[in-house]
Structures are given as structure tokens and as C-alpha cells.
Specification:
The protein has 404 residues and is mainly beta. The chain contains two helices and 34 strands. It is 3% helix and 47% strand. Strand 28 and strand 29 form a beta hairpin. The protein is globular. The termini are far apart.
Length: 404
């Protein structure tokens, strides 16, 4: 089958974990208001900040803000935003080999909060929170724990500092793709593989944040059809998702929309491309990544279209190989396979690439893959070092983008 074992949104985990391993042992201190603040006793090559040279080419005239350094130093591998709130996993300790544990979920509301705060502490302190999602004060996260055995557990978090609710857990053979999730105002939507009467079955699930009303929205034998990369429309009415379908000539990659307000609704195909995956919409524009050989590979560019997938056009991008695209009200963010020394976005209004910042190469400033995202008019990114053995701290930055 055309799958990447253990892939999905965790494509970047191995690379990022490797770069996080040399981070110092995490501990906790208290801020002036009593909030727990993670800190580290040492920093590494991933932990670096600009040497002081000013960034150039801020074409949008953005004001770049930064969260406190102690928080930026302990961020984990995953970040998400609903345009108001930003959440991420945080490093809480290191194991005996120097690998990070990431058992906390951190929240920050730009423009309101003076500093981030921990909104969930997993009771298994040696866990890894590998993926997070947020929508209007509700959350979801994917967790793994080697000590408890192979596999994953998917949790809903109904609100800050509330008990997490287990929604699903791994019971498939080793190496199957991990769940991918999206949120509406009242539900978690996720993909999962489960054995059903001896047949490995790909499923699209939903449940309320308290775990009630679980549903299997779609299902298919793994070797017939796969469901990938769900996202939801701004109004929460539709879930968008990608499929992988084997055919005689190889595989077809298509994207669909499903009306969540109509039980038993028939999926509606978006556009006509057989090389489309990772659909995202802001309600006005639909974007997708063009597949390259495998659904979880770096894509061959991004396409923007009408919400139904009509009138598609390739976006102007600085590099051909793209992954981890997010769309805001006007701008699209992405990661590129090719190394870059600047941070760029695609402007849907002007159909141009705009540079947010570009540092002199001598400063060795880069950007952590998986951490450059847009949601609504909010931009989040994390500066890191591209120079070996530099011992300065990373910087988690945010900015408000121009409106459409």
C-alpha cells in the first residue's frame, strides 16, 4: 500500500526529536503570578537566537513579538492555533539517554497573555505529546509512551486544567500511520486504523469533547481506501479530508468534503485532481498540496481554488517541495524541503510571495519545521540556530498579519 509507516503530521518528529535531544534538563520555576514556567539548565545547537543583526525584507511591515525566553527554550515538536489561541507541547524533562519527554500542553493568547501557561499536565510524565489541536477553548492531543507499550492514545481536553478524555487508542499492527485530527466547536474528528473482524480498516471518527456520541463517519478496508489529513471549515459544518485509492496505474489522491450536520451525508469531491492532498480552507479559498509519489511526502507545490475546488491555480512559492501548509484569512504558510534563510508566506490577495524576515547568513538563523503556521490573521514561528554548537536560546515569535 502507498502509505508511509507511522507518517502523517508526525513526518518531522524524528528530525526534530534529534535536534531536541541535547536540550538541558527541564525543570520548573515560578513566575511572579505563580504560573509554572519551564526552564532548562543547558542549551544546544537547536537553541540559538539572532546575534543582534537586524532582520531585513519585512515586506509586510509586521511588528514581531516574542514570548518569554524560558518558554521558548522548552517548546516541543507540535504547535496549533485557531487564530486567537496558540497551543504547543512542552518539554518537561529528559530521559536517561537525553531524549526529551513532552508531557505538558501550553497555551498562549497573543495580545492578551503576558506569558504562556500550562493548561494540561499529563499524569504519565514520561509521555510524548506528538500532536495538538485547539478550537475555541477546546483541545485535542495525540500521545505516545514507550514505557506503557507501543502505539498511540488520542485524547480530548474539554477545557484548560480539566481532565483529559480518552477517545481512541492503538490496536493495529506496528508501523501503521498514526491518527490525524481536526476540531469543530463541539467535536474531535480523527482518522485511525483498526482491525474489524480480521480486516484492517481505515476510519474517519468523531466524538464530543466529553467522549459522548462517538461515531464512525466513514470506513473502508485499508487496501481499498485510506482517509488522511482531516481539517474543518471555519463554521465547523464541514470536515475536509484526503484519500489514497489504489488503481491499476498506481494510486489516486483526491480530496473531499463531508457535511457534519447531515447524518449519513455523502462525501463531495473537491476539484478534479488525482494528485491532491491535505485540503485546508478559510471559507473563501481552498488550498491543497500536490502529491509527490506518496501522500506523506513533500509535495510538488500548493494549489488554491474556490471552496468547491473549481478554478484551481498554483501558488507562487519560493521552492517546489512543500509540506505542512496552513491557510489564514489572507496568507498561506508552509515548510520547504530545501534549506532557506528567510521566512516567506504566500499572499492569496496578490498571488505573490512576501518575505516576513531574512537574516544575514552569518547570523545562522533558521526556522523550525512544523512551527511556521498561520490561523486567521495570526502568524506563529520559531527561530532556531543553523550554526553548530551555538548556545543561545530559540525564539518563539508571533505577529498580526494584514487583513484581506
Amino acid at each position: 500500500m502507498n502509505v508511509v509507516r507511522g507518517a502523517g503530521q508526525l513526518l518531522l518528529v524524528t528530525t526534530v526529536l534529534a535536534s531536541l535531544t541535547a536540550c538541558g534538563q527541564a525543570s520548573e520555576t515560578k513566575s511572579s503570578d505563580g504560573t509554572a514556567v519551564p526552564s532548562t539548565s543547558a542549551t544546544t545547537s537547536i537553541a540559538a537566537s539572532p546575534t543582534g543583526s537586524p532582520a531585513s525584507s519585512n515586506e509586510l511591515g509586521l511588528t514581531i513579538h516574542m514570548i518569554p525566553e524560558s518558554w521558548a527554550d522548552a517548546t516541543g515538536i507540535t504547535v496549533a492555533s485557531d487564530g486567537t489561541e496558540v497551543v504547543w507541547s512542552a518539554i518537561n524533562a529528559l530521559d536517561p539517554r537525553g531524549q526529551p519527554y513532552m508531557a505538558d500542553v501550553v497555551s498562549f493568547v497573543p495580545g492578551r497573555d503576558a506569558e504562556p501557561r500550562i493548561i494540561y499536565r499529563h499524569p504519565d510524565r514520561d509521555s510524548l505529546i506528538l500532536n495538538v489541536a485547539v478550537r475555541h477553548g477546546h483541545y485535542g492531543f495525540l500521545e505516545g509512551n514507550v514505557r506503557l507499550g507501543p502505539g498511540w492514545r488520542l485524547w480530548a481536553l474539554p477545557g484548560p486544567n480539566k481532565p483529559a478524555v480518552l477517545l481512541d487508542k492503538d490496536d493495529a499492527p506496528d508501523g501503521m500511520p498514526t491518527p490525524l485530527m481536526a476540531l469543530t466547536d463541539d467535536r474531535v474528528i480523527w482518522t485511525a486504523i483498526h482491525p474489524r473482524q480480521g480486516v484492517l480498516t481505515y476510519e474517519l471518527h468523531s466524538a464530543r469533547f466529553d467522549g459522548s456520541d462517538p461515531r464512525v463517519l466513514l470506513s473502508s478496508p485499508l487496501d481499498k481506501l485510506q482517509y488522511w489529513m482531516p481539517s474543518t471549515s471555519p463554521d465547523g459544518r464541514y470536515v475536509l479530508y484526503a484519500t489514497v485509492e489504489p488503481v491499476e496505474s498506481g494510486y489516486r489522491y483526491r480530496i473531499f468534503s463531508l457535511d457534519l450536520t447531515r447524518p449519513g451525508a455523502t462525501p463531495v469531491r473537491l476539484g478534479t485532481s488525482d494528485e491532491a492532498t491535505q485540503p485546508e480552507t478559510n471559507g473563501t479559498n481552498l488550498i491543497w498540496r500536490v502529491v509527490w509519489s506518496n501522500v506523506a511526502n513533500w509535495g510538488q507545490g500548493l494549489v488554491s481554488a474556490d471552496p468547491t475546488g473549481s478554478n484551481p491555480r498554483y501558488l507562487s512559492l519560493p521552492a517546489p517541495h512543500i509540506i505542512h501548509a496552513t491557510v489564514g484569512r489572507r496568507f498561506v504558510a508552509y515548510d520547504t524541503f530545501e534549506p532557506v534563510d528567510n521566512l516567506t508566506l504566500s499572499d492569496l490577495k496578490t498571488d505573490k510571495v512576501v518575505t516576513v524576515e531574512q537574516w544575514p547568513k552569518a547570523d545562522g538563523v533558521g526556522y523550525q519545521q512544523g512551527w511556521t503556521i498561520v490561523a486567521g490573521d495570526l502568524l506563529i514561528f520559531r527561530r532556531i540556530s543553523t550554526v553548530k554548537d551555538v548556545t543561545k536560546s530559540p525564539e518563539v515569535c508571533w505577529a498580526i498579519l494584514p487583513s484581506p
